[in-house]
Each structure stands twice: as structure tokens, then as C-alpha cells.
Amino acid sequence: MSTARSSQTLPDGQPGRRETSLLAAGSIAGRALVIVVAIMTFLASMTAGTVELVASASKSWRADVAREATIQVRPRQGRNIEQDVAHAVALARATAGISDVKVYDKRESERLLEPWLGTGLDIAELPVPRLIELKVGGRPDFAALRRQLVEQVPSATLDDHRMWLQRLGAMASAMVIVGVLIMVLVLIATALAIAFATRGAMAGNRDIIEVLNLVGASDDFIAREFQKHFLRLGLKGGAIGGAAAMLTFWFAGFTAARWNATPGGDQLEALFGTFALGLRGYLAVVIIAFIVAITTAIVSRITVYRNLRGLD
Amino acid sequence: MLVRFENVGLRYGLGTEILRDLSFEIKPKSFQFLSGPSGSGKTTLLKMMLANLKPTRGLVHLFGDDVGRMNKDQVTALRRKVGVVLQDFRLLDHLTTYENVALPLRVQGKSEDSYRAEVIELLRWVGLGDRMYVPPSILSGGEKQRTAIARALIVRPELLLADEPTGNVDPVLAKRLVRLFIELNKLGTAIVMATHDWALMDQIPERRLVLTEGRLRIDE
Asked: What residues of A are in contact with residue B96 (Cβ under 8 Å)?
């Protein structure tokens, strides 16, 4: 209020200057509300950013997993495992859409088992299954390949990682749903806080509202005055909260990049890729800040309008 | 007829009637004093003429509309035709004199360019030309009074209701203000001026509505 007043009380003040707000700003707990809106925007933005990170990470995991498939050949009595492996490889190579086939030979299988069984093991003494890794280039007909394997190499099974993909998909969707729910809850909490703040502001400005009514102000005009005031507060709070969230994500990405070569950093990278919020994430934060500011304005207008109609 | 009261009574809650059997009319371009001792109900009657209070009995017609049936938009439209000067001025402390006077036009959504010259001219007319850009807190009682009067006049009302407009000023200024009202009346505004200053009324031979213990006597 003091700024508005001082600009209007200058001796050479011109009436053509910016219009002073009709609400006495001093009677509105403006700063507290800006902080509430900023915190709410920050929480909603953090949720949105995290959801975006998980969603994009899960997309890249799924793409990685979907680019591979595995044939497992189990040793069975009465069957030559090497022949079965060769047969399975031949069938895989003949399938369109499979760009590369890699057989894990005895030594590689041994190395895969080393962490569990130790070194110096003669794998031939153990009934260890053999793995054939398939690189997927196009859209192979896995159902046909599986059928052929059942018929011609009964000891082989094909795993196209469909179960993993489904699980990852379900997890990512659950994260997104939970994130959206949290954002909705934060928005509802913001709206309620604004409604209470507006009622407080109306009580603090009761004399002013009375005068406005006496000089012929419509309810719509008064509600618009409150809306303008709260939109300003909302934009301020939204900008602060959104900027804080962006800074937090930028800092997290920056720190993760510096830890890149450390074991912890590798884990993070395995989980979240580069742990950097893309343009979409930052855009989501900006949109959330705007939604919060607009919610602030609309809720205050509705609250004022309803209250004024109630006074009639 | 601007105002018509027919057997009007008003009570708050279950209390006794504070206004009883009021019947009178206010014609366009007329001038009348509303007098009576303190607490006789002058302010309450003015509030009824502003549709701020509805009668508990009888009929009140303002500008041809029954107050009992008016919706909020009609009340707003009515207040744009009526200027009001309240006893306690009711100026907005965080606005300047200029902004206070311009308020009735601003709430009508008019742009400042359309009324700036008019507001400045009116402020000069009421002798506040050099106090335009100061807040009411540094104005004297008389200056506040004139600001409130200018705010009531800026919309060129058909009816001006003034509640004790001379109550806070010295006799010389009081006379000046009444002359101002008479001048306005000659320009076509109907005036209801509430006052209990009998000496002032004796100088001006105009119609008197006298309230005593909630009842009205009219001295034509």
C-alpha cells in the first residue's frame, strides 16, 4: 500500500498514473499468502518433475528391454545341448526382424556364473542352461519363433521380456497416477487456502466494500477487484515456487552430472538416465505455476461473489 | 416521483418500531430538509431512501420501483442515480481526494480519460483544487466534507441525500455548503438534507420533513 500511496501523494502527482487498488493492501495477509502459494507451486512442480523423470526413464528402460530377447536352452537327458543351441540359433537367424544373434559360449556362461559359484569351475559337470541373445531390429514374429522352438527344439524357451515390459509399464503408470493425484490434492489445498484468505480479506475490507456498494459498484466489479489483487499474489507465489522447483531440478541434475563416475552416480544414471529434467519438465513447471495463479484468481472471485450475494 | 413512502414502518428484529406510519413523497428537482432531534431516525430514513434498509411494513417506491421487489442489480442501478453524503464521510483512506471523488465513475467501468477533466473541475468548484492528490487523512473536517459532497455530485445525481453535511463545519462554511446545495437544486437535482441545525433552516424557507419519535410531520 505504501508504494501506491506514495506514488499518488506526490505534490506533482498526475491522475493519469496507474490506478491505485481499491482494496487496502495492508489489511490483506498478502505476504503469508504468497508464501503459501509458492510452497504449493513448489510441491506440485516437484511432483510433476519427478513424474516426468520416472516416465522418461521408464520409457528408455522399456525401449532397451524391448530391443532384446533371449532364448534359453536347458540341458536335457538324451539331447545334445550344442546341437540344440545351433538349431535354435538357425531358427532365430531365419526369423525376420532379428538383426543379430549372439550365443553365450561355455566360457562366457562360466563368467556369468562366476560371482555366485567362484572361479575354476568346470561348467560341463553342471546342467547349466545356455543363453542366446537376440537383438531386435524390426518387429519379429515372436509367436511363430516360439512355436517353431517348441516343435523343433523342445529344450529351448523364448523370453521376449514381455512380463518385464508389462511390470515396468504398470509401475510407470502407477507413478504418473499418484503424481497427478498429489498435484490435484495440492491444487485443492491451494484453492481452500485462497478461499479462507479471501474471506479474511473481505472482512478486512468490509468498510471499503460498503462504500463501493453505496457509490454504485456492482458485485461483479467488487469481485473483479479482489480477483485482480489475488491474481497478482498468485503470480508472485507461482513464480517463486516454480523458480525454486526449477532451480532444485537444475541443481540435482548438475550434482548428478558431477558424480557421474562414482558408484552412486552410476546407480542414479541406471535409474534415471542422465537425471536431467528435459524441456518438457521445465515447461510443466511453468504451466503449473500459471495454473496455480489462475486458480488463485478464480477462487477469490467466486468466493467474493458468493459472499456478496449471500449478504443481499 | 423519485421517492414515495406509504404507511412505512421499520423495526429491527422483534424490537419496537423505530419509524412509524411514514407517508411522504420527494418530487424531482425539489428541496427539503429532514430534521429532528438526534436519534429520531433521520439516518435510518435516509438509508431506506438508498435501498440500504427495507421496510418491515408499508411500501417504499424509489424511482418507480418497489424496494421490496428490487434485485441486487436494480439496487446498483438505483445507487448510480442517487448521490449520498454520509455523516462520517466514508472516504477511502488509501486513495487521494481526486481518486475518492472519481470513485463512483470508476466503479461504473468508465475510463479515466473520460472523467479526469470533469473531476478536476468539480474539485476546483468545491474549493479543493490544491488538495487533489493528498489522502483524506491530512484533510481538515471541512475539506473531507466537501470531498464527500463532490463524490456524491460527480455522477450528476437526480437525488442527493445528505446526512448532516454541515455537522462538522463552522457556521460560515455551513452556509456556503447550503448555498452549494441550493445552486445544485436550481440545476435540477432533488435534495434531501438531514440536519438538526434549526438556525440554518430558519434562514432558508424550504419544505421540512420533521421526525419525532419515529413519526413524520411535514411543514410545507
From this structure: 8-9, 13, 20
- Strands ordered across the beta sheet of B65-66: B19-26, B3-10, B57-62, B65-66
pLDDT tens for each residue of A188-217: 998 998 899 888 888 888 889 999 999 999
Chain A to chain B Cβ contacts (< 8 Å): 87
Report the relative pairing of strands B215-219 and B57-62 from DSSP bridges.
Answer: unpaired
Query: Is B98 in the A-facing interface, judged by CB distances under 8 Å?
Result: yes
Return all residues near B35 (Cβ < 8 A) that are at least 6 apart: B42, B194, B195, B196, B198, B201, B208, B209, B210, B211
> Do the beta carbons of residue A121 and residue A158 sit within 8 Å?
no
* 8 Å CB contact between B24 and B209: yes
For the stretch A92-146, pLDDT in tens is 888 888 888 888 887 777 777 777 777 766 666 777 788 898 888 878 888 888 8
Question: Contact A97/A137 with Cβ under 8 angstroms?
Answer: yes
Q: Is the pTM of this model over 0.90?
A: no
Which H/E stretch holds residue A73? Answer: strand A68-73
Q: Cβ A312–B99 below 8 Å, yes or no?
A: no
A191 touches chain B (CB under 8 A): no
Residue A64 grid coordinates: 532397451
CB atoms within 10 A of CB B112: 15
pLDDT given at position A271: 62
Return the residue in A2, A208, A215 with the most chain B beta carbons within 10 A, the one to mutate for interface testing: A215
Contacts of A26 in chain B (CB under 8 A): 94
On whether the CB atoms of residues A71 and A88 are closer than 8 A, the answer is: yes
Closest CA to A61 of A252, A287, A259, A270: A270
**Close Cβ partners of A306 (under 8 Å, ≥ 6 residues apart):** none
* Of the candidates B52, B97, B11, B42, the residue with the CA atom closest to the CA atom of residue A210: B52
Task: Give the nearest partner residue to B80 out of A15, A208, A216, using CB atoms.
Answer: A216
CB contact under 8 A, A215 and B132: no
Count of Cβ atoms closer than 10 Å to residue A311 Cβ: 13
Indicate the residue type of A182: I
Q: Which residue in B151, B132, B124, B116 sits closest to A12, CA to CA? A: B132
Residue B11 CA: distances (Å) to CA of A28, B15, B16, B65, B130: 35, 6, 6, 22, 45
Q: Give the DSSP per-residue string, B17-70.
A: -SEEEEEEEE-TT-EEEEE-STTSSHHHHHHHHTTSS--SEEEEEETTEEGGG-
Choice among A14-18, A221-225, A279-283 with the minimum mean pLDDT: A14-18
